[in-house]
Amino acid sequence: MAFWQLTRLRVVFPVLLLFFLFVDGDLMAAMGGIFTAFPWHVLPVLTLIWLFYAIQFDAENEVPIWLYTIIIGVLFDMYYTGIFGTYTVAFLGAVGAMKQLHAYLDERLLSGMTLLLIGLVTYLLITYMAGFIIGIANVSLVSFFLYEVLPTLALNLTIAALGYYPVWSLFQFLR
């Protein structure tokens, strides 16, 4: 096997991770009127979906998933919020939950969507709790689940399901 074959995933994965970091913000900027139409608040989290794909398709052996998670969390905090640590902890918590549960689930689509569902809920709960502690989240937990978590889950699970097999094929090609 040639050297370029060993490094393809190691190069493509972080480049696409950084790309999805900016696409998340661009989607919110371009479609903010739709995503935040009262009373709904939908968050596209393509960055977390890309990290989910790495866990689901066993890319941890080829890419340092924890390092990339920390780096992308810090960049997300610096670029989007200015509150250091919130999204870093949220990304770490979601990736940690998905990695722990991946041992019990297989690579089928429904198992993957369950894994992503748990990761997304973990991610959203951590950001809600951080906002509540800081004092910027002033909605009840029921409203949070009804108007932010459910629409966010619907959007992101749909995106992840549509991209599941194409991304699986990409990972197989890059290996």
From TrEMBL:
Q: Which GO terms describe its biological process?
A: regulation of cell shape
Q: Name one GO cellular component term.
A: plasma membrane
Question: Mainly resides where?
Answer: membrane
Q: Membrane-spanning residues where?
A: 6-23, 30-53, 65-94, 115-147
What's the protein's topology in the membrane? Multi-pass membrane protein
**Keywords from the UniProt entry:** Cell membrane, Cell shape, Membrane, Transmembrane, Transmembrane helix
Task: List locations, semicolon-separated.
Answer: Cell membrane
Q: Which family does it belong to?
A: Belongs to the MreD family.
Query: What name has this protein been given in UniProt?
Result: Rod shape-determining protein MreD
Record the organism: Leuconostoc lactis
Which gene carries the instructions for this protein? mreD
